[in-house]
Amino acid sequence: MDDAGSTVTADWHELATRVLTGHALNRDEARAVLECPDEDLLELLAASYRVRRQHFGTQVQLYYLKNAKSGLCPEDCGYCSQSVISDAPIERYAIANEKTLLEGARKAKESNARTYCIVASGRGPSDREVNHVASVARKIKDELGLHLCACLGLLKPHQAQVLADAGIDRINHNLNTSRRHYPEICTTHTYDDRLDTLRVAHEAGMELCSGMIVGMGETADDILDMVEELRQLNAKSVPVNFLHAIDGTPLEKTEDLDPRYCLKVLCLLRLGLPATEIRIAGGREVNLRSMQAMGLYPANSMFVSDYLTTAGQTPEEDFAMVSDLGFEVVIGGHEAHDAPAAVS
């Protein structure tokens, strides 16, 4: 390798060393990670893995999703097969009953997932739906002791409190994209509406799970803005979705991603949010393809089995991938976290 290449390679490890001693990435450094030359990607992954290993060792946390309410959504999010403007051929049904949600929780436990995610489509839940999820949450806690995350749309303060009181540990509400780009993706609610839901979840005492969808026509600056916003939010878990362009949605022909860029995004999240759980979420099979396993060098969690309206690889394939890396799936109780910082 020539001298210039060696200099670039050495810089990733020097950056990782500074991150490990408390340095926060500046914008130029963050941009450099996204623009890392492909020939230096392995060194960037190695540097990012040093940070991941310091905070999480070789552990991988698994999440299991349950689509508790499908379709029937009045919002116009351009990526979503469940939106009012989507023609995607998906199942549409009202909120699942207690038996179905409990069966999903048992499946999560069988799949070695530490966190069970109850997801419902729609702008936001009714009080009846919130009370139903709260009732089921109590039974899941009693029977299985799973860490619980709910993603129910825009929440009102009293609804967030009901969920917190029932034992919901964490609320997921993704930023999805940057403030600048948001009107290009959705017009029926705003970026600030999303921040408001994260705020009321925090105020009710729940952890925050919030992340992004990469590949929706955003710029590098949009990605950098999201990373900074997530740092300010002190999100405990950051799911990184890579657009799975679904037929029948406005973004159905969007294919802007390659596996190498996806890995660079994951490295940026690890170096930018060193002690935060970074999860490879929707679209990993489609976009990372043969390089899926490499995503776990910067990331430390992933969904197991299927997503909301798209299929994932089998749990057995996920377990084999983790084992082949020499990593281990974390089984058992979820560690306690410090209370999140105030959401501004």
From TrEMBL:
EC numbers: 2.8.1.6
Residue positions binding [4Fe-4S] cluster: C73, C77, C80
Gene Ontology MF terms in the entry: 2 iron, 2 sulfur cluster binding; 4 iron, 4 sulfur cluster binding; biotin synthase activity; iron ion binding
Classification via CDD domains: Radical_SAM (cd01335)
A Pfam family it matches: Radical_SAM
Positions annotated to bind [2Fe-2S] cluster: C117, C149, C209, R279
Pathway of action: Cofactor biosynthesis; biotin biosynthesis; biotin from 7,8-diaminononanoate: step 2/2
Cofactor: [2Fe-2S] cluster; [4Fe-4S] cluster
Catalytic activity: (4R,5S)-dethiobiotin + (sulfur carrier)-SH + 2 reduced [2Fe-2S]-[ferredoxin] + 2 S-adenosyl-L-methionine = (sulfur carrier)-H + biotin + 2 5'-deoxyadenosine + 2 L-methionine + 2 oxidized [2Fe-2S]-[ferredoxin]
Annotated cofactor note: Binds 1 [2Fe-2S] cluster. The cluster is coordinated with 3 cysteines and 1 arginine.
Residues annotated as domain Radical SAM core: 55-284
Enzyme class: transferase
Keywords annotated in UniProt: 2Fe-2S, 4Fe-4S, Biotin biosynthesis, Iron, Iron-sulfur, Metal-binding, S-adenosyl-L-methionine, Transferase
GO terms classed as biological process: biotin biosynthetic process
Keyword Hydrolase: no
Record function comment: Catalyzes the conversion of dethiobiotin (DTB) to biotin by the insertion of a sulfur atom into dethiobiotin via a radical-based mechanism.
Assembly notes: Homodimer.
Annotated PANTHER family: BIOTIN SYNTHASE (PTHR22976), BIOTIN SYNTHASE, MITOCHONDRIAL (PTHR22976:SF2)
NCBIfam families recorded: bioB
Family: Belongs to the radical SAM superfamily. Biotin synthase family.
Protein name: Biotin synthase
Native source organism of the sequence: Maioricimonas rarisocia
Taxonomic classification: Bacteria, Pseudomonadati, Planctomycetota, Planctomycetia, Planctomycetales
Gene: bioB
